[in-house]
């Protein structure tokens, strides 16, 4: 059985992920190749952190990475509903999808462990424009660490910079945003 949510939980990973040219699935820790590999990492992290209400079977995707993919925007790819978005402590972050994408948060963005990230610039892979659409910069659909770059958000950013802040070289690491599948 796949879990269902009356809200969607959102967190940022506490560690960085690098792109891997190997298409190993499930991916090894700390790496991913393609959107499905990122989704697997998000679900595995959520399971390890105790964020699931049932044991994970190691197969079903219960959390998706908040990244775009070849011509697919954030809401469609990640299954963002027009619902309430909460952090891992259950605090309401945003009431509607538009508020979420605009970064209009009423509670802090937390890691899977419930911690606020330190620092001022914390890059997170997104491949997104400020409006949540595909930016065209996704390290060749999250599969090529030698590609020129991908759009990243800043987990410590304000407004829409949380999903679209700058570009980052594909061989460098960045975190992932993970959202519960509705």
Structural class: alpha/beta
The largest pleated sheet is described as: 8 strands, mixed
| Secondary structure: number of strands | 10
Instruction: Give the overall form.
Output: globular
Poorly predicted sequence stretches spanning 5 or more consecutive residues: 1-5
Structural commentary:
The chain is an alpha/beta fold and 182 residues long. The chain is 16% helix and 19% strand. The chain contains 4 helices and 10 strands; from the N terminus they run βββαβαββαβαβββ. It has helices at residues 34-48, 74-78, 97-101, 139-142; strands at 8-12, 18-19, 31-32, 63-65, 85-86, 92-94, 123-125, 150-154, 166-168, 175-180. The strands form 2 sheets. Strands 1, 4, 5, 6, 7, 8, 9 and 10 form an 8-stranded mixed beta sheet that branches. Strand 5 (85-86) and strand 6 form a beta hairpin. Residues 1-5 have low confidence and may be disordered.
Structure characteristics:
19% strand; 4 helices; 182 residues; globular; 10 strands; single chain; eight-stranded mixed sheet; alpha/beta
């Amino acid at each position: 059985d796949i879990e269902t949510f009356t809200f969607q939980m959102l967190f940022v990973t506490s560690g960085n992920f690098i792109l891997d040219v190997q298409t190993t699935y499930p991916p090894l820790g700390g790496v991913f190749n393609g959107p499905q590999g990122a989704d697997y990492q998000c679900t595995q992290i959520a399971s390890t952190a105790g964020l699931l209400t049932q044991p994970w079977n190691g197969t079903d995707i219960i959390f998706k990475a908040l990244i775009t993919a070849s011509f697919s925007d954030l809401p469609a790819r990640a299954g963002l509903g027009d619902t309430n978005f909460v952090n891992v402590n259950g605090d309401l972050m945003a009431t509607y999808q538009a508020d979420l994408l605009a970064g209009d948060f009423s509670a802090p963005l937390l890691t899977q462990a419930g911690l606020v990230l330190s620092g001022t610039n914390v890059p997170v892979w997104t491949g997104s424009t400020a409006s949540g659409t595909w930016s065209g910069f996704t390290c060749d659909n999250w599969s090529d660490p030698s590609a020129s770059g991908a759009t990243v958000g800043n987990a410590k950013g304000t407004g829409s910079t949380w999903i679209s802040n700058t570009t980052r070289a594909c061989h460098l690491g960045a975190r992932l945003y993970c959202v519960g599948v509705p």
